[in-house]
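Reading group handout, session on sequence-to-structure problems. Before we discuss, look at one worked example. The prompt was deliberately terse, the way you'd type it at a terminal:

> structure HnRNP F protein

The input record follows.
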Amino acid sequence: FGTRRGLPYSATETDILTFLNGLPIWNESGILITLNDDGRPSGEALVKLDNEIGLNDLRDYNGKYMGTRFIEVFPATQKDWFGEEMRMKLSDMTYVRLRGLPYDVTKEDIFIFFSRLMISRDGVGLLYGPDDVPTGEAFVQFMTREDANLALQRHNQCIRSRYIEIYKSSLTEVYRAMEKQYEINREEILRRSRHRPANFPPKFNADPYSHVNSYYTDGYSFPQNKSSQGPMRRSRESKNRSNPYGGKNSHSSVKVETQNFGEFLGPLSIHMRGLPYTATEKDVHEFFAPLRVAEVKIQLGPDGKNTGEAEADFYSENDAVKAMEKDRCKMSWRYIELFRGSSD
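And the output record:
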């Protein structure tokens, strides 16, 4: 067994097999890409080798690069593999999916429905379809596997006059729902913008995540830090945010929730450190090209001067993950450090 650290966050089992070409690895099933407690790739992986000779050869890859990332390689044990595998399985057992909700249901209604069970902070996500129509479905993340199992026992109990169906879910299902929600919102934005005069700001919030945003923000929270927040933790503030169609966001004619289901997948902001003091927003956009940056906020000190830090917001989780591959790349002569999530 061996451990690899420093992987690009978008790295797949196939990428790792290609990088370790020639080593006796048990195909893709011999690679375990580990996740943080919030379900995002940790930048580490465990590799299962057929023999000790393969382990010796694996050490030769220590210090090599995968793309722009410096990769560390060191030995691991079978205990490490099974321990990590079990940890990820347990963390994936805290999600449930609800169906049959009243269309005017609120996050507070769901919190009351699951009274005495501990829901993670920002752990309720309501789903919307085209034209801002609620689907009657939601995801809920609980603090523990035990509470998630107890939640399943409330299957077919009522919220008001509606029988609620409750099913086991997973972080993978949450990710898929989030991507689908994003596409629905993006198509809605494009459809409505086609019917408005050119260069005229939309009457609705042009942030595609405005309706992914729907989480209950009071409750319980699992341990997290500023750079690694939970999958349903961080808020995206739509007000005063520039939109991709020109102009500033105006008051929305589409219902906009202030708590944010958009962060079901984690923060879409990246904190940058080590910028040249002369860096501009244009420099940040060019640094992440060809990825599209939604907004750049250069941080200034009390004296009004550039602090060498900035926030870059992205439109999708995929773009944010790809952007992290620029960690420790250069802007001019400076190496730039990147961290997931805002510094706020």
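Points for discussion. First: The CA atoms of residues 204 and 253 lie 5 Å apart. Second: The longest helix spans residues 171-193.
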